Automatic annotation (TrEMBL):
This is YeeE/YedE thiosulfate transporter family protein. The keyword Cell wall biogenesis/degradation does not apply. It holds the Pfam family Sulf_transp. InterPro entries: Sulf_transp_TsuA/YedE. The chain crosses the membrane at residues 21-40, 46-63, 84-106, 126-146, 158-183, 203-224. Keywords: Membrane, Transmembrane, Transmembrane helix. It comes from Clostridium malenominatum.
């Protein structure tokens, strides 16, 4: 038997002997702490207690699904997998369906409302959008995760992501301090592009077209995954 084969057998035996730590007690303790915090917040502010509960649930879903926007755009190139990307597409479809009802109802009541007043955070689109997206894209690739992925990994105990969190905080403070400058120079002069108004179409028609485009992208991503993904090999 070769030395390589012997080492391989040793490694397999070591893996079998390593006992996995039971994290159930820790999970129960954290769940109790989360409930206690919820009750304390509820006694002072109902709105904040809802935020806390929703935040905990979102964190649980993110951790169990391994959902990360960085992985969604990185994995198709690196390993050929589009599972996370398809999850993002499904999320966009669900959001489109939800917001079309909210915005349609709002516009029925306020037909002459300004674009900035329509629910859904409709903001100007311009060169600042391209620059910000490019810088953020570089940053999240270097950091190895987006904001949600970083927070998720911190909760899992990845201490290196604390450095990324510090970078997030510094970046937010710097951007908040310089927002007025960039707003006056770029953002204020950029147009607000709202497709129903831009194409002069009913919002429901635009939403349907958007869903069709997203479904097509989903199918392309699915076919790409079947041909390129190395995760199943």
């Amino acid at each position: 038997m070769s030395s390589e084969r012997i080492e391989e057998l040793k490694m397999r035996r070591q893996k079998k002997n390593v006992k996995k730590k039971n994290q159930l007690p820790l999970g129960i303790i954290l769940a109790i702490v989360a409930i206690i915090i919820y009750v304390i917040i509820l006694r002072h502010n109902l709105k904040y207690s809802i935020f806390w509960a929703v935040g905990v649930l979102i964190g649980f879903v993110l951790q169990r699904s391994r959902f990360c926007f960085t992985a969604g755009f990185r994995d198709p190139i690196v390993v050929g997998s589009t599972s996370v990307l398809r999850g993002i597409i499904i999320g966009l479809i669900v959001c489109t369906i939800g917001f079309v009802f909210i915005q349609w109802h709002f516009l029925q009541i306020n037909p002459n409302a300004n674009l900035s007043d329509i629910p859904g955070s409709i903001y100007p689109v311009g060169m600042h959008t391209v620059i910000g997206a490019f810088i953020f894209g570089i940053g999240m690739v270097i950091a190895g995760g987006c904001a949600s992925g970083t927070l998720m990994r911190i909760g899992e105990g990845f201490l290196l992501q604390l450095v990324v969190l510090v970078g997030f905080i510094i970046g937010i403070l710097l951007s908040a301090g310089g927002f007025r400058f960039w707003h006056n120079k770029l953002i204020a002069n950029s147009p607000i592009i709202y497709f129903p108004k831009f194409f002069n179409l009913d919002i429901r028609v635009v939403a349907l077209l958007q869903i069709i485009v997203l479904v097509i992208i989903y199918i392309i991503a699915y076919v790409y995954d079947k041909k390129k993904s190395i995760m199943k090999n």
